Amino acid sequence: MAEPTLDDLRRYAVARTLFKPTTLGRAIQRLGFVQADPIRAPARAQDLTLRHRVEDYRAGDLESRYTRLAVEEDCLVNYGFLPREHLALMHPREAARAWDAQTRRRAAELLDFVRARGPVHPREVEQHFAHGRVANAWGGSSNATTRLLDDMHYRGLLRVKRRDGGTRIYEAVTHRPADDSPAARAQRAAALIDLVVRKYAPLPAASLTYLVRLLGYGAPHLSAQTQAALRLARDQLASCRIDGTLWYWPADENPASRRHVSDDAVRLLAPFDPVVWDRRRFALLWGWTYKFEAYTPAPKRQFGYYALPLLQHDRVIGWGNLSVREGSLQADFGYAARKPAGAAFRAALDDELQRMTHFLAGR
């Protein structure tokens, strides 16, 4: 196999994840994981990601079809949606921090309540228990009952049955016991690394290390095993060094293959789309720094509240901020260098805005 160039890696990074649109279930299966985010600007990140990969996808389709899919809301390297089969790699999950006696008692009471009641809205649970308020990670306060529901979901005592208007409806769940032998734990850790590599490849070495560290969110009890599996993976994955950076990708894929061809479409990507998720890789492939600034004070923003990376062929050339005002889609664009000239780009961008309008219209 010929050593790939940076241009090869760029084409490969785009083509391998922007596959031909398919069904919703197959797209999630192929992606392995879809990161979720609650901000709608102009739609949630999971919907913005899936619209490029699911035929005739509309905003809200994942939520409305969720109960008919073999998909779960859960954690991997962050929170999102993944094929149900992957849960066995992480559950029963052992949280890094143990509950105190009061929290264990409250969780047991809440679990009994959910088992007796069936699927519950957090509002029903709060009305019954009224646990008060607790400080959250953003410097404010959250409903303590909602926080406990989230924590019970994380620990595998509850699952998301569905969403009502974006709110999680929980039900009790019991995960099958896992084989806890050293060999089985090592096997699960290796499978988790394979999952994230296949989602985010090609990966700079530092990004691979970072992703494995993030697996401590989805599988904190396998941290030692994932570190050991990483050492083995470095020998088993394909790799090359370009301009001093060591890159990794699955051994059964060829970044230099001629089949990695970009099309003529212009696409607005979610900030967490696998094409752009790794900001280190982003800078290496496209030569500029993109930042997600939703939590940056407005005066300090360079790109905008929810800037969507703008992809043309195999290049991310800029960003767009979109909003809907009085039923009309409004778009404001910025470019890393010069705005592309010519009628072909203008037509392709207009086509993307038409697709976005159709996507936002819903069912």
Overview of this structure, please?
With 363 residues, the chain is an alpha+beta fold. It contains 12 helices and 14 strands. It has helices spanning 6-15, 24-31, 45-50, 61-65, 101-117, 122-129, 144-154, 182-200, 205-218, 223-236, 279-286, 343-360; strands at residues 34-35, 71-75, 79-83, 133-135, 141-143, 158-164, 167-172, 203-204, 238-242, 245-249, 266-268, 308-312, 315-325, 328-335. The strands form 5 sheets. The protein has a 4-stranded antiparallel β-sheet with strand order 11-12-13-14. It has a 3-stranded antiparallel β-sheet with strand order 1-3-2. Strands 8-10-9 form a 3-stranded antiparallel β-sheet. Strand 9 (238-242) and strand 10 form a beta hairpin. The longest helix has 19 residues, at 182-200.
Question: Helices, strands, pairings?
Answer:
Blueprint (H helix, E strand, L loop, with lengths): L5 H10 L8 H8 L2 E2 L9 H6 L10 H5 L5 E5 L3 E5 L17 H17 L4 H8 L3 E3 L5 E3 H11 L3 E7 L2 E6 L9 H19 L2 E2 H14 L4 H14 L1 E5 L2 E5 L16 E3 L10 H8 L21 E5 L2 E11 L2 E8 L7 H18 L3
Antiparallel strand pairs: 1-3, 2-3, 4-5, 6-7, 8-10, 9-10, 11-12, 12-13, 13-14
Helix pairs in contact: 8-9, 8-10, 9-10
List keywords for this structure.
single chain, 363 residues, alpha+beta, four-stranded antiparallel beta sheet, globular
Low-confidence stretches: 132-142
Q: Mind summarizing the main beta sheet?
A: 4 strands, antiparallel
Strand content: 15-25%
Span of the ends, CA to CA: 47 Å
Count of DSSP strands:
14
Mean pLDDT: 94
Radius of gyration based on Cα positions: 22 Å
Class by helix and strand content? alpha+beta
Note the overall shape.
globular
- Tell me the strand order in the biggest sheet: 11-12-13-14
N to C succession of SSEs: HHEHHEEHHEEHEEHEHHEEEHEEEH
